Amino acid sequence: xxxxxxxxxxxxxxxxxxxxxxxxxxxxxxxxxxxxxxxxxxxxxxxxxxxxxxxxxxxxxxxxxxxxxxxxxxxxxxxxxxxxxxxxxxxxxxxxxxxxxxxxxxxxxxxxxxxxxxxxxxxxxxxxxxxxxxxxxxxxxxxxxxxxxxxxxxxxxxxxxxxxxxxxxxxxxxxxxxxxxxxxxxxxxxxxxxxxxxxxxxxxxxxxxxxxxxxxxxxxxxxxxxxxxxxxxxxxxxxxxxxxxxxxxxxxxxxxxxxxxxxxxxxxxxxxxxxxxxxxxxxxxxxxxxxxxxxxxxxxxxxxxxxxxxxxxxxxxxxxxxxxxxxxxxxxxxxxxxxxxxxxxxxxxx
Length: 350
Known about the structure:
Blueprint: H1 42-55, E1 59-64, H2 83-97, E2 100-103, H3 113-122, E3 128-132, H4 135-138, H5 162-173, E4 180-186, H6 198-211, E5 218-221, H7 230-239, E6 242-247, H8 254-257, E7 268-273, H9 281-288, H10 299-314, E8 318-323, H11 325-328, H12 331-344
Helix pairs in contact: 6-7, 10-12
């Protein structure tokens, strides 16, 4: 775990005071106050209008999740009395800057109506929330991980269960109303011993997409590079479902995917800048936390997202571009770098 760095005079104090450690009796104090507003950071002043301008053209930049104290002095410029209050309230400040966010937490458990209502109430009318579908729907065999408990290593009887998806996932999302963004089905890697070949996967996905309720924006994220074929893209296109452009450990980078013919399979597209190809999630965590600055620039990743914007503009499609801290170390700064690249593109290409 990264050590907490000592604050210096030029570092914004995000929390008014540290919370007492376990067993320590807190000093008597009045009830926690609401976050206090501070002047905008240079990050907000330099990028706020650019983000709004791109959003007006259907290009929505956002991050994967949002509760990162490392973004203090960039995205977060209010003083929060406690870490708990920061976690509860910081989305409203985030949404003043970014037009969208990808809620990764939904992958691990079905979203609750109460949480979706809170998100709706904390964000402006123009904000959208994309969510990853809970892996109880997308995992064929549960990995041997502690979080899966007794299910670890077992076949998942709810794999591609449309009824469960409708009841446990879609119904709570009604609380988001018009703020519901893209619904992302992230499929983990299908290894040879899974029994799922490309032909099997194509057949399963075709049937699944046929049975899904209409009126939602769906996207599929692959983790098998050999599944990314013309036949697969044509299948998604026939259902109006987006292929999700991803930078991930064992997938071709976005800069290569965006060159594929027919890769924009719907009227909207989604890109997720997650990891440098060849790097595991844990390696990225160890390298980049606490996510307060860029530690490793990835020129291909930046170019891939910029080219995704250019191609979507050229084809009259919208784009949700989500950047993860594990891509370069600090999502907001990576987005800023992509905006800088786009500023250099000839106007006639955009």
